[in-house]
Amino acid sequence: MSTVEGVFAINKPPAITSAQVLRNLQEHFKPSQLFAPWIARERALRAAESKNQKRRRRDKTLNVKLGHGGTLDPLATGVLIVGVGSGTKALPNFLGCTKTYETVVLFGASSDTYDTEGKVVARASYDHLTKDTVEKALARFRGKVMQIPPLWSAIRVEGKHMYEYAREGKEPPRKLVERSMETSEVTLLDWLPGGSHQWNWPREEAPTEEREAAAKLLHQEETAGKPAQITYSGQKREAEDESNSDIPAKKAKRNDGNRGEDLAPTKGTASLEPSTSSTEEQRCPAPAARIRLSVSSGFYVRSFAHDLGQAVGSLALMASLVRSRQAGFELPRECKSKYLEDKNIEASDGAESIKEDAGTRKGDDERLSVLEYADFAEGEERWGPKVEAMLKAWNDRETGVNTKGRPQQLRNTSSPDSE
Fold first, then answer.
1. What does the DSSP assignment read for 210-223?
2. Which of 235, 266, 231 shows the shortest CA–CA distance to 124?
3. Rounded distance, CA 176 to CA 290, Å?
4. Burial class (CB in 10 A: 0-12, 13-18, 19+), 61
5. Torsion from C-alpha of 323, 334, 118, 238, nearest 10 degrees
6. Strand, coil or helix: what is 200?
7. Are 107 and 295 in contact (CB under 8 A)?
8. What are the two backbone dihedrals, phi and then psi, of residue 365, each rounded to the nearest 5 degrees?
9. pLDDT greater at residue 403 or residue 290
10. 6-15, 212-221, 222-231, 348-357: which has the minimum mean pLDDT?
11. DSSP class of 148
12. Which one of 136, 197, 228, 338 is separated from 388 by 20 to 30 angstroms, measured CA to CA?
């Protein structure tokens, strides 16, 4: 059997890090028949090394060489590009290519991580929001935009990660600088009225230190359109009643979906007072929007969700994220729409928009397949031939040979409008 290496893509499942995906792949690849020739070749090369070379080698464990072409958050699913052997040298090219995401933005609250995995730091009114309101606000996010990375990120400020400051409830010693980004597409795919979807705000409230830091930062940010009626976590109801809001403080008991927490919101505003009398599960009363983005390198979808909430005079966070395309790798239609079935969304228009999208996009014959993560549970007999074919397809593409054996024009993986 010949040595196989190159680049392929896998459909990353939720609730797992990109690094863990590689560790799991290693468990399958290292003892496999498919990569036995690669292991044998690497063993022979190491045996021929000089004593100094062997001494300098930090990791003496012989594993299949793996890397990925861009991290996906644990919450996110979708295209994760994996380099094998010499294919890892091509991975930097994928960091600079256009990526397409489909995200669900949930309005009415903000969290320390800007997504539903974090802790609630503030809530805001949302009853004024409509599909038209959001659609108009999206116009300002098209083209060249300025974006501030989220506090909960791996960016270092004076030698310390931003998420470390967030955990400690401390303000960074200096503000994060806005970064220039570019979006080639921002499309509203679905408008999901409150009660018609299964996404929910985070169950947990942030501790006092984090709430106070968030309050300062949110007050520093400007909102466009109607000013948000913001209620910070832990704030007393009297403070809310003293606001300029003309919305009556009308209590209605609500159970926060499967999160198991009862809250008592005012109309259009989610209050933070707990209620213990309601046990029936109810859907989140705030609306959500499913949006497709094609973006440049370094773009934070979580920051986009947060900024969109500000732009429509409310607050928002990211509830779902699917990377549907990266360079020539793209999820098939059924994978993009799978979460609609998982979440039991009552939005027939959304299914139609996906069908139309699949039928109108060009270049279907140039797309490279994406491997389903579940295939690995069925053994090498299942995933082995698929991985081998995918690596061959990528190598043929790079060397200018199409699947029918004819030369084809080489295409750069990073385009002028790329990430």
1. HHHHHHHHHHHS--
2. 231
3. 28
4. exposed
5. 120
6. coil
7. no
8. -70, -15
9. 290
10. 348-357
11. P
12. 338
Return the beta strands (E) in 193-261 as ranges.
230-232, 254-255
Residue recorded with tokens 């903000």: 110
Burial class (CB in 10 A: 0-12, 13-18, 19+), 239: exposed
Q: Are 6 and 367 in contact (CB under 8 A)?
A: no
- Side by side, the strands of the sheet bearing 120-124 are 109-111, 120-124, 230-232
Q: Distance between terminal CA atoms of the chain?
A: 37
Q: Are 281 and 255 in contact (CB under 8 A)?
A: yes
- CA dist 28 and 171 (Å) reads 43
For 103, other C-beta atoms within 10 Å of its C-beta total 23
In degrees and rounded to multiples of 5, residue 17 shows phi and psi of -80, 160
**102 band by pLDDT with thresholds 50, 70 and 90:** very high
Separation of alpha carbons 338 and 200, rounded Å: 19
- The band of 288, judged by pLDDT with boundaries at 50, 70 and 90, is very high
**Which of the four pLDDT bands, split at 50, 70 and 90, describes residue 298?**
confident
Does this model's pTM top 0.85? My answer is no
311 CB-near residues (< 8 Å, 6+ apart): 137, 140, 141, 223, 224, 225
Nearest alpha carbon to residue 283 among 191, 192, 204: 192
Cα–Cα distance for residue pair 198/185, rounded to 1 Å: 26
For residue 334, give the H/E element and its range.
Answer: helix 333-342
**Rounded Cα gap, residues 337 and 335, in angstroms:** 5
Q: What six digits make up the tokens of 294?
A: 């094609």
- For 40-99, write each residue's pLDDT tens digit: 999 999 888 888 887 777 667 899 999 999 989 889 999 999 999 999 999 999 988 899
Tokens of 147: 């974006």
Tokens for 361, please give them: 């996009």
Q: Nearest 5°: phi and psi at 142? A: -95, 145
Secondary structure of residue 38 in the 3-state scheme: helix
Q: Which two tokens stand for residue 292?
A: 């497709």
Q: How far is CA 13 from CA 214, 295, 311, 322, in A?
A: 31, 22, 31, 10
Tokens of 280: 């029936």
**Mean pLDDT rounded to a whole number for the chain:** 76
Give 34's contacts (C-beta < 8 A, 6+ positions apart). Answer: 1, 4, 380, 384, 387, 388
Catalytic residues: 73
Are 95 and 327 in contact, with CB atoms under 8 Å apart? Answer: no
Among 62, 55, 2, CA closest to 29:
62
